[in-house]
Amino acid sequence: FFKDKTVLDIGCGTGILSLFAAKAGARLVVAVDQSEAIYKAMDIAIENGMNSKIKFIKDKLESVVWESHGLPQKYDIIISEWMGYFLLFEGMLDSVLYARNTCLNDSGALLPNRTSLSIAGINDIELQNRYIDFWDNVYDFKMSSMKSEVIKDALIESISSDVIATSVCVVKKFDLMQCLLEETQHFETDFQLVSQSDGNIIAIIGWFDCNFDLEALEHKVILSTSPFSESTHWKQTVFLLKKPIITKIGDKIDGKIKVYRNKKELRSLVVHIDINGCDKQTFYLS
């Protein structure tokens, strides 16, 4: 798929994706990153004898003047590891979609090409004890007033599939070859979770999947950050509930979720979850 193609790597970091592309036979790889990490990427490319195939640009993608580097503006393939916690944290997708609109050949490919966000309810007693019940007795002092502060911040935790207590609901899908920037910056949708056991739902968790499944790809791949898959550094995002939802098997939990950028800090996210029209909470990823 990469043989004799031109490839643009956005936010290259250590350059690992650029190395893979060059190894797979790309004719030219251009790696862009505005951080100091790009200098290490240059050293790594030299270490691996790839510096003749990979060209590095230290700049913000939107500011690159391609002619000044003697490089083309259009590429056959755009690759990027842009995903943040709960997929959209850090806002790097903005640059990827800008590149898709300005730097991708008409018949080009953006990888990954599809993503989705999913949620489920959990009954995790250990998590409840660590973050909520802990405040009931701190060295024999009651600090339960802290609970309301603690639950505002979404947690990043590795959640065992054993504590998943509901069905899974996909709350958003993005076709990255076509979606609009606005769709990724603000969305709202209904959801329904079905209880799979009797007990308490103490939190809603979220994760994402990335699909590399364009028709031209010989091998289709899914990168999943689901608790049912091998753990990744993205883990899962946990939204602790103010009060547990007591459920019987088969009970339906209806709600709305709204996700949008924090205007005060554009790399951050605000997540509103409204369960059954009465329990509303706001969470922050920052």
From TrEMBL:
Signal peptide region: none
Single GO MF annotation: histone methyltransferase activity
Single biological process term from Gene Ontology: methylation
GO cellular component: nucleus
Superkingdom: Eukaryota
Keywords in alphabetical order: Methyltransferase, S-adenosyl-L-methionine, Transferase
Stretches assigned to the Protein arginine N-methyltransferase domain: 114-274
UniProt-recorded name of the protein: Protein arginine N-methyltransferase domain-containing protein
Organism of this sequence: Medioppia subpectinata
Phylogenetic placement of the source organism: Eukaryota, Metazoa, Ecdysozoa, Arthropoda, Chelicerata
